[in-house]
Every structure is written in structure tokens, then in C-alpha cells.
Amino acid sequence: MGLKAYLARRIVYTLILVWAVITVNFIIFSLMPGDPIQAYVQSLKKVDEAKYQQLLEHFGLNKPLHERYLLTLKNLLTFNFGVSFHFGSSVTQVIMQRLPNTLILMGISTVISIILGMLIGVLVAYKRGGAFDTTVVTASLLTYSVPIFFLAWILITIFCLELGWFPTALEQPIQWNRNPPTNILELISGRLYHLVMPTMTLVLFSVAGWILLTRAVVLETINDDYVLTARAKGLKERTILYKHVLKNASLPLITSIALSFASIISGAIITETLFSYRGMGLLTYKAIMSGGGPDLPLLNAIFYILALCVIIANFLADILYGIIDPRIKYG
């Protein structure tokens, strides 16, 4: 099977997956216990039947189940997510206000974690069995197993409360809400200053996983014949490790990298909540824990977008396999 036929088949599979995601989303939110509209009306201190019926009509919840399913299918395929219960405005507008903050935080922390983890992981695999290997693996297992909220509390206590080097909350100085900066350098420096603590927390937590994964995949190929041949030709050890060994061991890493970037949009719920960082993670937490019950339109949109990102990431990873490793045939 050629590349075009493979792509056509994968696109069909992707469309089927998207339909399945929408269906599962609909089933989950339809089977949730309780009446979210009633909870929302009560949270407004207005237990009014007319208001209740108006909201049912507005959100299409007074229609038969099959009509609601077709309406959900149409709305999600056209990215029409409706109106948020909690914020009272368009779900798309609410998400777009928080999404840039999450993309900045998760993008920076993910890139740093992947690069550091792969570089250190290759070096640890090369020095396997030694003191450096034992120390790094032990430290990685320790940081990877510690709950991220505990890690964040330690960092906040040391660097924010004791040393006073960094702020404990928000994604920008609070005074910017009234007087936003006009200087681009002030804007960048202020945002970076508030990014240090949540970024450090996410990097320390996730880099350990990349170190362990890279070490494992490199150990599977580091003693192959082509490595011995490269050494016999007099190539530098750094070239052998990072250009040849890492490239041939990169297929499992590609999948993990693709899924990591796909999950960027979901944010980091615990970290963003602890640092009051107004991104997608904190938005998801508020949508779940809002006083008027779960914000179903907002949660539905978040879960759907995240599922789409994972599907697309897997699709791109499958394509990259054949580009990076010529031994893989599309079939």
C-alpha cells in the first residue's frame, strides 16, 4: 500500500474516531445524575419555572434524546459549543481567554522537559551501571512518584515564602488588571517572572519520566551492530549517541512527544489551581466545582477539543514513523 492509500485509510479511521468521541461525550453528559439546569437556577436564587423552561429551550435539553444527539453532533462538528452556565457567555470566548495562558505555560514546560529528559536519558544509558546512572534513576523515580501538589508546596515554601524570590499566584502582576503595560519588554519580563514557579513544578515532575523512557529505549539499541561499526569508523561518542542511537530508538519517544503536545491544551489542573494560574486547567476545575453544578457546555467542549488533539497527534505520529525510520512500510 502506498502513502496516499495509507493516508486515505487513516483519514477515514480518524473521522470514525471523531464520531465515536462525540457519541461517547453525549452519552456521558446525558447519563450524569441530577439536573444541571435546576442546580443552575437554584444557584441564582431564582427557583422560577419560567426561567427553568427558558433555559431548557435555550440549551436544547427539552428535546427528545435522538434530536439532542443530532444537535450535539452538528454543534460539535461545527465547533458551536453554546453558552457557559457559569460565565454566561460563549464557551468559545471563555476558552479563548484562557487558552493562550495554558499554551505558554504547558508549551514551555513540555519543551524543556522533553529536551532535558532526552539529553540526560541518553547520557544515563551510556553510563549505565555506574554511580551517575544510579543517582539519576533514583532521583527520577523519586520526583516522578511524589504527588505534584506536594512538589509545588515545597517549591512555594522555599522560593516564595522563605526566600521571596517569586510570586505565589497568577500569570501576571495583579496591578496589570487596572493598568496593563505598554512596554513589550515589561510585558515579557512580567509574564516570565510569574511563569517561573509553575514551569519549574511541571518540569521537575515530568522530566523524570522522559529520562526514564529515553534511557529504556536507548538501552535496547546501544549494543546493536551499527553502533559497533560507527565506533570502529572512529566517530565521536556524542555523534554516535545522539545522531545514530537516539534516532533509531526514537519511535516510542515520538508517540509520547505527540501525546504530550496533544495534552497541552488541557492544561495542568493541579498546578494551575495551586498557583491560581488562569489557564485551561483552572478553567476545567471551576467548570467541575462551580456552585451551580457542573458547567456541562464548557466541560463538553474541553473534553471534545482534548480528544481531537489526541486523535490528530496519533495521526501525525503514524506519519512521522515512516519519515524517521525508512524500515517502516505503509501497509
Outline of the structure:
With 331 residues, the protein is an all-alpha fold.
Beta-strand segment tally:
0
Total number of helices: 14
What is the average of the pLDDT values? Answer: 81
Helix content: over 70%
Main pleated-sheet profile: none
The radius of gyration is 24 Å
What fraction of residues sit in β-strands?
Answer: under 5%
Query: What structural class do helix, strand and pairing data support?
Result: mainly alpha
State the shape. Answer: globular
Q: How does this structure look, described?
A:
This protein has 331 residues and is mainly alpha-helical. Helix content is 73%, strand content 0%. It has helices at 3-31, 36-43, 49-59, 65-77, 91-126, 131-145, 148-162, 184-219, 225-232, 237-248, 251-262, 269-274, 280-289, 296-324. α1 (3-31) runs antiparallel to α14, α7 packs across α8 and α13 packs antiparallel against α14.
Write the layout of secondary structure elements.
Elements: H1 3-31, H2 36-43, H3 49-59, H4 65-77, H5 91-126, H6 131-145, H7 148-162, H8 184-219, H9 225-232, H10 237-248, H11 251-262, H12 269-274, H13 280-289, H14 296-324
Descriptors:
14 helices, 331 residues, 73% helix, mainly alpha
